[in-house]
Structure formats: structure tokens, C-alpha cells
Specification:
Layout lengths: L31 E8 L6 E9 L5 H15 L4 H24 L12 E4 L10 H11 L9 H13 L4 H13 L6 H16 L5 H12 L3 E9 H11 L3 E5 L1 E4 L2 E6 L7 H14 L7 E4 L5 H6 L2 E5 L3 H10 L2 E3 L15 H7 L1 H12 L1
Parallel strand pairs: 3-4, 3-8, 4-5, 8-9, 9-10
Antiparallel strand pairs: 1-2, 6-7
Helix pairs in contact: 1-2, 2-9, 3-6, 6-8, 12-13
Length: 365
Amino acid sequence: MSDEPDRTDPDIEPNAGAQPGTESDVPEVVDEVDIVAVGDGPDGVEVIESVTVTDDGPGEPDRLREWVSHASGRFRQTAAEVRQYLAGEAAAKAALESLAQRAQTPPDGADLTAAAFFDVDNTLVQGASIVHFARGLAAHKYFSYSDVAGALWAQIKFRVTGKENAEDVAEGREKALSFIAGRPTAELVALGEEIYDEYIADKIWAGTRALTQRHLDAGQQVWLVTATPVELAQTIADRLGLTGALGTVAESEDGIFTGRLVGDVLHGLGKAHAVRSLAIREGLNLQRCTAYSDSHNDVPMLSLVGTAVAINPDSDLKDIAKVRGWESYDFRVARKAAKYGVPTAIALGALGGGAAAAVRRGRKG
């Protein structure tokens, strides 16, 4: 299966493949947002067509939602799936804009076609970063601790069951984002830096941090991929010296948050689409890339790259990793992971599944 077409190519029309007589269903284009329609291909991500929609003023969010609902049937997707792809496109766009603003120059000897993608919650950070973030916002009087009781309860359930519930993830993030409605985006970025230092810095898994550094040392890009708001995710990436972050994009107008999301919370298929979109724009070879996660919800992203690694896996991901032969490491039962042999995932990404199998056999011997 080939990668999706580069929609920046002038030879590819935004509405290619649209059915005759349906153009009036799509709002007039002002600020363009691409939605890619996919079907049930061999890898579950087969591009059918792309269209362009827009949000161009008061009342447009409702029109956009109506169009998404209509388009979902036409494209053989549910409305939720269409929103996830919209979220993925928004995440990739925001990540690349941030990268351009920082004007990072690839180091000498950089590996320009390989990268690593890390989930954040329970993979890189102990617990949920949005809960840590919410604690910080409560401390700064954005809302009371009782307001985030639901998010805390979701984390308790995760601790007990070992499974991340997609509905809990969506509900928790959306509620947290609703509290920032009317706040300046710059204010949240500044607070994110303080909150990282106060609540998150000491929650980084040493073993996972070592893995990010190995990819950096190999000259590869290292991206965070998370349902956490992109402002906080980018702060975590900056503090750890990573390339950038793909996160949930909250809508803003004139530098003020509206309290709505662009598409949806970045989750599941949305993460996979964000990674694919970024890879196309950055010229990455996904077969040379590596992805890390703790959750079975991230199987679409893990399946997209040449090397998948389960970190602190939930029970379902642990089973999937065994069946598919993925590397699996649990730093929860080895707090001093950085002191013993951390897997050379860089080599696995470069050499492919055969090398991974060899490493596993060597460890068993």
C-alpha cells in the first residue's frame, strides 16, 4: 500500500473524486482544511479521496459538523472517524508550523528519513499529563480541584484495570479544554512551562527518556504523539530537547481559545493519521520509523511504522505485542530502567523485524 498523495501537489485537485451534484454540501472555501477519506485497506488505512472544507465565520462550526456527518456516509466512515482524521491533519499542521517557527537546522549527519514517535501518558510520563496539567491550572485558580474529579477517577480506573478507556480519554480532555475557553493562548503556553517544572518533570520514565535520547543521538527526529493539548505537549518536547509534538488542537480566534476542538481529541486513528501526514511532509520513510505506546488504542499508529515497541503496556497491548512479535518493556516494575540495558530501538528501526527477532532470541538465551 502506498502513502497517501501529497495534497500540496498542484496537480491534485482538492475535491477530486467528489460525487457530481454534491458540491453545494461543502461550505465555501476560505481557510482550507483537508479531510482524507479512507476505507478498509490491507492495513486499515487506504486513501479513497480528499476534499476541502472550511470554517469561515459565525455559524460555520455547525455547518462544518453537518457536512462531516453527511460526508461520513459518503466516504464509508463514521462521523467520529472523519473527526479523527480532521484532528490528525490539524495536529500535523500545528506541529510543522511550530517547527518552522523554531527554525531548527538538522545536525550534521542527521538521518533525514527516520524518526521516532512516542505516546506520552504512561509511556513517557507516569500517569496522565492532562491530570498533572489540570492540577497546575487549579493551583492557578483556573478552576477548583473538584472540577477535575472525573479525570482523576478515570486515572484511578486505569491504575486498577490497566486499561485506558477511550471514552474517559475523550471526556477528560474535552472537559479540561472547556475550562480554557476565553483564555489567551499565550497565557496557557506560559503556564504550561511552569506546570511542567512543578508537576511533570519528575514524572518522566527514565527508561523511556533514554530511548528518546538514543534516537536523537542517531540524528533522528523525535516526536511526541498525544491526546494532550498541543501547547502542553510542545512544552514537554521543548524541555526534553525533542523535535516537536503532535497533540490535540484547541480552536482559537485572534489568540483566544473558543473552548472547541479542531476535529476531535487526537486519539486512535487520529494519531496514525497525524503521523502519516507529518511523515509525508517531512519526507520520512515510515518503514524506517519507530513508535512507542502503552495502550492498545494506539495500535493504528504502532502498525503504521516499521518498528513498534510497547512500553508499560496495558493487558490488551501486551497480548498484541506477543502475537505480532513487537518489543515490550515495562518500566513500572523496573524503576531503575536507565541503569540496565535499554533496547537499541534505533538499530531495530534501521534493520527491521529480523533484527528485532534476533534481539529477542538473544535475550531469551
